Amino acid sequence: MTVIDIPGSKSVTARALFLAAAAEGTTTLVRPLVSDDTEGFAEGLTRLGYRIERGQGWWRVQGRPAGPAADRAGVHCRDGATTARFLPALAAAGHGDFRFDASPQMRRRPLGPLTGALRALGVDLRHEEAEGHHPLRIAAAGIKGGELTLDAGQSSQYLTALLMLGPLTAEGLTITVTDLVSEPYVGITLAMMRAFGADPRREGRTYRVGPTGYRATTYAVEPDASTAGYFFAAAALTGREVTVPGLGTGALQGDLAFTDVLRRMGAEVRTTAEATTVRGTGRLRGLTVNMRDISDTMPTLAALAPFADGPVRIEDVANTRVKECDRLAACAENLRRLGITATTGPDWIEILPGTPRPAEIATHGDHRVVMSFAVTALRTPGIRFDDPGCVRKTFPAFHEVFEAHWHATG
């Protein structure tokens, strides 16, 4: 059995940084993810005037319930969607003039439903170039609160940003959602808000958040379930066994449900309070699966699919077209490069069984494309990547760790 120490969750680390910055007191984050995305988030907080101290395995954040200490700041969000979507909401609750920009990749990704909601709450906000995209400028003067209707069908991060903003408003927020993708991520948000002293309530598609503020705490960041998926998929493919400690029955992250997909394909899965174990059985069955709630794991399944004994069809993943790249198109393109038949529609991809041949993977600067096709490479020697280093976004040491656990032991 191979035990894998997976880095902390990107999603949890980003939320924890927002909540710690907004809380009364000093918060200690235990085992936060250290990657380009989270470094960018922390740098953004520092530019806004928040104080962050770092040690080995911990970050300490001095909260400011009144908002950023800086009255004027420019923040570059790099490639980070959580940074680009959460920090403007945090800054809007304070007072000052703040400008946000991002990488060309992040500039292409949509922001409109969130900034439209902030405007509806009275925030003085303008997009400097393309409407609904970075860069943007906010003249912040606090937020009274009120009622909103939100379309979160492109990204649950719009809803998360507004939910976390709610306790910082003068009167609280009521948000009614017309459409929502990746709903388990909202569950992470609600649980973490409660851990920091807020009391969000959900009634169907309506969320109510009172003006409670937040309290500092010590918060342990669980391992990243999306990252663990590459190692679980590798176990299913190679017939070996992998255990990831820290992702058990109480885990917050919905992407752990990827193990249910592997179970349907024939792998053995065991989840205890402390860990999850996946063991390959030598067979992978084809299947049709709705991955709306776990769409970040879609590329992982797409990269595994050629080795199934029948077609693999992944449905309801339209939102993956507006991630770091158009992931549906990128997966299909790369599978075809490998000689595999793949067809796509607006929100689906279907992949036929086959024997991949060596080729160069077009990564489109997307960390998940690289890590997913690293699984394919376990059975297809000679696969190369045009930008292997883009894994720095979430797992800078991915290649070394993956190589150590798989190739070194065959």
Query: Biggest sheet: strands, sense, closure?
Result: 4 strands, mixed
* Widest β-sheet, arrangement of strands: 1-14-16-15
Segments where pLDDT lies below 50 for 5+ residues?
A: none
Q: Span from first to last CA?
A: 13 Å
According to DSSP, the number of beta strands is 22
Gyration radius (Cα, Å) is: 21 Å
Overall shape: globular
Q: How large a portion of the residues is in β-strands, by DSSP E?
A: 15-25%
Quickly describe the structure.
The chain has 410 residues and is of the alpha/beta class. The chain has helices at residues 10-22, 36-47, 81-92, 104-108, 112-120, 157-165, 183-195, 225-238, 258-265, 298-304, 327-337, 367-376, 398-407; strands at 2-3, 26-30, 51-55, 58-62, 72-76, 95-101, 124-127, 136-141, 146-152, 173-180, 201-203, 206-209, 218-220, 241-245, 268-271, 275-279, 287-290, 312-315, 342-344, 349-351, 360-361, 384-385.
